[in-house]
Automatic annotation (TrEMBL):
This is Peptidoglycan DD-metalloendopeptidase family protein. InterPro entries: Cell_wall_metabolism_enzyme, Dup_hybrid_motif, M23ase_b-sheet_dom. Keywords: Signal. It comes from Spirosoma terrae. It comes from the Bacteria.
Length: 212
């Protein structure tokens, strides 16, 4: 379990943040309050608590931040799954493991407070990343701290604390950390898409959410 929510029993909304969503052309995505009103307005209209989606999605929402647009080859391919839910929602670990690293990535549009766990699956390392948490989620952590399935490791953070996004959890899996600590690209360029998708498997293979 990743959130205190049953994707088998409770309704949820799949959210589209690609260029095929006409709503995004009319929104000022640089205004986080406006962006948040849009996301949670969608959830309320659908009478659900959680919005979900985004793996391998070619998104336009990163154009709001220079953090993703520092070169001609902008990063717009999303490498994890996002869970849009109220700030303060507990985040649980779906696998046994240890704390690999953690950091407050405090750039506008970045992860904000981030935790990365290390797991062993069939004798091979697997890493899981939890981004856009509360700063309090980092308190008391240390590298090597053991965690077990369904342990609470943090909470979804509010903006601007969470990197200045509408409240959500970015959940991502990696088979190779490429030397990163407390951070890992959650978005890549089109030219790097195949490289990063080979390192970042679809988290839904673990979660099994219908429709993703």
């Amino acid at each position: 379990m990743l959130l205190p929510f049953s994707f088998q029993k409770e309704p949820y909304l799949i959210l589209d943040f690609s260029a095929t969503n006409p709503d995004l052309a009319t929104l000022d995505l640089t205004n986080t309050a406006t962006f948040t009103d849009y996301v949670f307005g969608k959830l309320r209209a659908a009478n659900v608590r959680v919005g979900v989606g985004g793996y391998n999605e070619h998104r336009v929402i990163y154009r709001r931040s220079e953090h993703f647009n520092t070169s001609e080859d902008s990063r717009e391919i999303h490498l994890g799954i996002d869970f849009w839910a109220e700030a303060g929602t507990p985040v649980l670990t779906p696998l046994d493991g240890i704390v690999h690293s953690f950091r407050d990535n405090a750039n506008f549009g970045d992860y904000g407070p981030t935790i990365i766990l290390e797991h062993t699956i069939d004798g091979q390392p697997l890493y899981s990343l939890y981004g856009h948490l509360t700063r309090a989620s980092l308190e008391g952590l240390y590298v090597g701290k053991e965690v077990q399935v369904d342990d609470k490791i943090g909470e979804i953070g509010p903006y601007p604390e969470n990197g200045d996004w509408p409240p959500h959890l970015h959940f991502q899996l990696m088979t190779d950390m490429l030397g990163y600590e407390g951070d890992f690209p959650g978005v890549c360029s089109i030219s790097d898409r195949d490289k990063f998708l080979s390192i970042c498997p679809n988290p839904n293979e673990l979660l099994g959410i219908a429709g993703l």
